[in-house]
Amino acid sequence: MSDFDLIIRGGTIVDGSGGEPYVADVAVKGGKIARVGQVSGSADQEIDAKGKLVTPGFIDVHTHYDGQAVWSERMIPSSIHGVTTVVMGNCGVGFAPCRKDDHDLLVSVMEGVEDVPEVVMTAGLPWDWETFPEYLDAVDRRPRDIDVAAYLPHSPLRVYVMGERGARREAPTDADIEEMKRLAREAMDAGALGFATSRLSAHATGQGDKIPSFDVGDRELFAMGEVMRERGEGVLQIVSDIGSNYDSEIQTLADLAVESGQQVTFTLAQMNQDPEAWRRSVDKMRKAEEKGGRIKGQVYPRPIGMVMSLDATVNPFCCSPTYAHELVQLPMAERVKRLADPAMREKLLAEEIEEAKTPIYRMARDWSKVFLLDNVADYEPDQSMSIEAMAAREGRDPLDVFYDLMLRKGGYQMFYCALANYAEGSLDSIREMIVDPNTIVALGDGGAHYGVVCDASYPTFVLTHWVRDREGERIPLPQAVKALTRDPAEVVGLKDRGLVKEGYKADINVVDFDNLQLNMPSMIDDLPGDGRRLMQDADGYVATIVSGEVILRDGKSTPARPGRLVRGAKQDPARHLETA
């Protein structure tokens, strides 16, 4: 019998602690890292990692795999970018608790907020649960490639407790609050990591209505904080509104962190309309921490944006009546032919756009933030390459320039629209956010925005752009790996992972760093109900390992499905050993 299940030989260990890399072997047994150093002995399997990086598996604490975790064994695209643990239920949207009569509402919420088509959910969800513990059991029954954990989502909870009153965003009664608290305790007993909500005005249902959790006051949020304080554990995840009350919103979250004594984490971005607001947020976080609060901003490491094309959900004509009602359902070749007709061109260029159900669709015409995405996935383009700058050079209207470009490649030409994190035309401020001790890197949104983004590829972007390729100031490799691994693990209480050290969970990546490459996104058809989505893969992942089993080898999925539902917070093995 072999001494170990797996030995990774001679790799350069970047262990997730932020310490300097070193060359060593890593031995795995029983799903745990058994030895790091010079390892003798035999193994059932060996991986030659000489000249390669060996890192902990990456952790994305902000995803929306709530549906995909039920209907699929692979949490892609996350797992093809080295991610070995994801957290879902973010933004307070999900599918439990839920009575049968509320299925359509929760589908509409997910469709509007996270761009998951109704037909995909209708085909993919068996709805063999009602309570949140029953939903977790359904997730637990499905074998999968990587680990998933979940928050209790606010919108389903509110509707489950309050019915139509909850959907209409009415104020809760004392009895409503007590029932929400009871169900939150029940959810955490079953394994929820905490509670998640959205207070963002841009989040709407598929019909354009505000979601149940929007603008319902602070009472429910602080009630969930009471539950966390009572238990002495739990995470409160929030996406806040970014309007005129943004500063007061962040102050509310800072107060919540102090009052609950538990971890609060929220989406932090550089807003185009207020580029310095994030600095004020960081200041509020620091002051909260001085009072004993625990609060972290979640930062996306490249522009928060959307991919646009005639083949995607959004393009600058998707709100044009003629395009939306006459052209969008046509096969691509026929659509391009109709769009190339001079009369149609003249009509669309002159036509007033309709009000969008989703507010960000109107931002598709912010020409200073729209860039050609052409053959190379460039997420820090020079401002001179914007559609606005191109139009200025040509002395033309930006919409006219865009019209010509969108017909290239048979209608499959892609564009990138930077909605946030790119106010200054560079990522310099985002680098400041990433390295700030009050933030973590997150927001991959895997399982959501299927026709608009493929943001779950961000770990590969961090390693290629921020560590290796950027022309401006970069981020050191040990710091970048720590940001992808141990930092998010600690914030959500999964302290058994995120380090390449003895006793920790054997979630590991072997990476050919010199040849690591983020490829262009493309549309694929692999969702239930023949649904389509953007996919973005990468080259350079030699192996991704979950609980000691290789799930990805040289970019190809293996039959291994060691991923499990993670129920609740996990202890730090090192501290456990110290106190044993």
Automatic annotation (TrEMBL):
Residues 569-580 have a biased composition (Basic and acidic residues). One of its GO terms (molecular function) is hydrolase activity, acting on carbon-nitrogen (but not peptide) bonds, in cyclic amides. It comes from the Bacteria. It holds the Pfam family Amidohydro_3. Residues 555-580 are annotated as: Disordered. InterPro entries: Amidohydro_3 (IPR013108), Metal-dep_hydrolase_composite (IPR011059), Metal_Hydrolase (IPR032466), Metallo-dep_Hydrolases_sf (IPR050378). Residues 45-551 form the Amidohydrolase domain. GO terms for cellular component: cytosol. SUPFAM superfamilies: Composite domain of metallo-dependent hydrolases, Metallo-dependent hydrolases. This is Amidohydrolase 3 domain-containing protein. The lineage of its organism: Bacteria, Pseudomonadati, Pseudomonadota, Alphaproteobacteria, Sphingomonadales.
